[in-house]
Amino acid sequence: MTIINFQCKKCDTEFDCKTGEILFGDILSFEKEIICPKCGKLDKDEIALTELGQTRIGEIYISEENSVKQSILDLCDEEGTGFEAINDLDRSAFLPILFGIEEAIYLSYKKDSSLEDSKIIESLKKLRDNIFSDNTDYNDSENAIINKIKRVLELNSFSKRDVLLSISKVLNSVKLHRSTGGKKGYLSFISGFFNQLKTKKEEY
Ligand SMILES: [Zn+2]
């Protein structure tokens, strides 16, 4: 859970706020709303970082940079799960990486609601065919998926084959939901899933 120290530009109050995922673009953006204890929800131009907040952001940025520098290939293990395919019986072994890919897709869709399943299919095919080579240009949502996979690989043991199986598994899921649910069939499905998950988390 990331907590950052902010200052409200309206009332000068300093406060801690949970940010969720931090996106490092031209301007910082946060997954969650930033809420001043006095003024309530703040717009981007109404928040300032305190010195404490800046230090914390710097630390997070450096740790993300470091993980980004390592290639997916370097992060893969020889052995991995040892499974030949993802089926109902061994699916749980792949959950961290499947969940990571789907979460990255969900966050991209939250950022850009014009996304459609066909774009996701295109991206996943591109990743499946190129993820172990260095010289491919990726768009923002593809990079988000790659960075998520890297973070999963840092914490879990997966092989090259596991990574490819997982991408293919999600790809098939997108195709399936698109064929039954229309051009945003899959994106609606995972949004529902992650929103439900979020509500559950907040209940605890
Ligand atoms: Zn305020």
Descriptive overview:
The protein is built from 7 helices and 7 strands, in the order E-E-E-E-E-E-E-H-H-H-H-H-H-H. It is mainly alpha-helical. It folds into 2 domains: 66 residues; 133 residues, no CATH class. Strands 2-1-7 form a 3-stranded antiparallel β-sheet. Strand 1 and strand 2 form a beta hairpin. The longest helix is centred in the C-terminal third of the chain and has 22 residues. It is globular. The mean pLDDT is 91. The site of zinc ion has 7 residues, from loops.
SSE layout and pairing:
Elements: E1 3-8, E2 14-18, E3 22-24, E4 28-30, E5 35-36, E6 40-41, E7 47-49, H1 51-69, H2 72-75, H3 91-111, H4 117-130, H5 140-155, H6 160-181, H7 185-203
Helix pairs in contact: 3-5, 3-6, 3-7, 4-6, 6-7
Short recap of the structure:
The chain contains seven helices and seven strands, in the order βββββββααααααα.
* Share of residues in strands: 5-15%
The SSE order reads: EEEEEEEHHHHHHH
As residue ranges, the low-confidence spans are none
* Tally of separate helices: 7
Which ligands, by name, code or SMILES, are bound? zinc ion
Return the structural class. mainly alpha
The largest sheet is: 3 strands, antiparallel
Total beta strands: 7
Count of all domains: 2
Shape: globular
Summed over residues and divided by their number, the pLDDT gives a mean of: 91
Compute the gyration radius: what is it? Answer: 19 Å
User: In which order are the strands of the major sheet placed?
Assistant: 2-1-7
Task: Tell me roughly what share of residues is in helical segments.
Answer: 55-70%
Q: Give the distance, in angstroms, between the N- and C-terminal Cα atoms.
A: 14 Å
